[in-house]
Amino acid sequence: MPTILLVDDDDDTRDLMREGLRRRGYDVNDVPTGAACIEWMRDHDVDVVITDVQMPGMSGVELCDVLQARNPNVLSILLTGVATVDTAIGAIRAGAYDFLTKPVTLTGLEVTLRRAFDHLEVKHEVRRLRASVDIDAPIPNLVGESRALREMTAVIRRVADSDTTVMISGESGTGKELVARSLHELSNRRDEPFVAINCGAVAPSLLESELFGHIRGAFTDAKTSRHGLFLQAGAGTIFLDEIGEMPLEMQVKLLRTVQERTVRPVGGDEELPFSARLLTATNRDLETEIEEHRFREDLFYRINVVAIVVPPLRERGADILVLAQHMLEKIATRSSKPLPQVSPDAARKLTEYDWPGNVRELENSIERAMALCDGIQIAPENLPEKIQHYAPRRLELSTATSTQIMTLDEMERRYVRQVLASLNGNKTHAARVLGIDRRSLYRRLEAPVHRSRSDTD
């Protein structure tokens, strides 16, 4: 369902229109001024803006003009008390999709909205067709239109056709391998092999042979010589997933490989050159791993020439529903079943949930819902119970007893530790959430503990 933003300085009018449209199943928010509309759209995705013409400050026509310049994909519908030729000409010149004369009925407004939504679908289809013939257009494997995704895909396009080593970081289930494959498919190596390995899924004793190969007789089962993945990738791409799981002794050998652009098979004496591009990925905070002596700093700087951070699903807003629809279409096609619609209540549950498992968890939930629904509509009860009953988590900071009083420094230190614990010890993410740099985070964690004092002192 497209998102709608109402703009009107009259509170009663806004309230009536908002509640009326919500009762009819629309996703609606409202603001009182044109300036507030522009501010709202900096952080939220909006498809249709319904605005009054006569407002203090910025008029509806002026707002429409600004939106056309800044957000050309947003449709504007103007509401006017007096429909004159000048108003109509002004609205058309400002790029308005339509304008209605007050008083506006919900039925009349809904007819206009349905036409606007049809128009949006046509525009989206045109963009999709253009993307299919333009390598610089939105990346097919990365579904969504949120700001976070657009910023990431912009970086992918800029570095895809270079030989630069890229490190992809992000939480588990965000789609880091999809990003790696997109880098490969948009590069001039696209016709060469894409070879991937999960460093945490291979036993340390076998990892060296998998990566660099071995010669005959190098170990008990080495009955023939075998090229490792670096050579198997040829002139294509080798992707080392979960590189943070790699043992330290293997990190030393990988560092030499990256520096010299050669590999030495297990049991061999000869250095063999390779030409594949190296991509890596991790869900760990490698800077913290370096500080705790679990990852080599020199290797980190070799593989982190360009960093791409894959945003977690909870930061991608309406992309959750876009992805859900995409997954439903794939499942329906694969199983030859009719495509169900997602009910407004189920859509709200999906967007409110925190998605700790990210895209992988969403895919699992959608497949479950598809199996349990009536074939016509996905309802809230078709979703996993933890999504049905989800309530946003809040950090609560309390003292040991009702009479204990802590200093501000100690309260700050405890809060920082709780945020860090909620993010599984990821100091980089914790610093970002707290709005401070990593050095400030360490300073707060290492600050001396002051004794709490009782209110009876």
Summarize the structure.
The chain is α/β, with parallel strands linked by helices and 457 residues long. It has 19 helices and 18 strands.
Question: Can you tell me about this structure?
Answer:
This protein is of the alpha/beta class and 457 residues long. The protein folds into four domains: 3-129, Response regulator (Rossmann fold, 3-Layer(aba) Sandwich); 147-309, P-loop containing nucleotide triphosphate hydrolases (Rossmann fold, 3-Layer(aba) Sandwich), CATH 3.40.50.300; 313-388, Helicase, Ruva Protein, domain 3; 404-454, Arc Repressor Mutant, subunit A (Orthogonal Bundle), CATH 1.10.10.60. The chain has 19 helices and 18 strands. It has helices at residues 11-23, 34-43, 60-70, 85-93, 106-133, 147-160, 176-185, 204-212, 229-232, 248-260, 286-291, 297-303, 319-335, 344-352, 358-372, 385-388, 408-422, 427-434, 438-445; strands spanning 3-7, 27-31, 48-52, 75-80, 98-101, 166-169, 194-198, 213-214, 226-227, 237-241, 262-263, 272-273, 277-282, 306-309, 341-342, 377-378, 404-405, 453-454. The strands form six sheets. It has a five-stranded parallel beta sheet, sandwiched between helices. Strand 3, helix 3 (60-70) and strand 4 (75-80) form a beta-alpha-beta unit. Helix 2 (34-43) packs parallel to helix 3, helix 6 (147-160) crosses helix 7 (176-185) and helix 13 packs across helix 15 (358-372). The longest helix is centred in the N-terminal third of the chain and has 28 residues, at 106-133. It is elongated and about 90 Å long. It starts with a strand and ends with a strand.
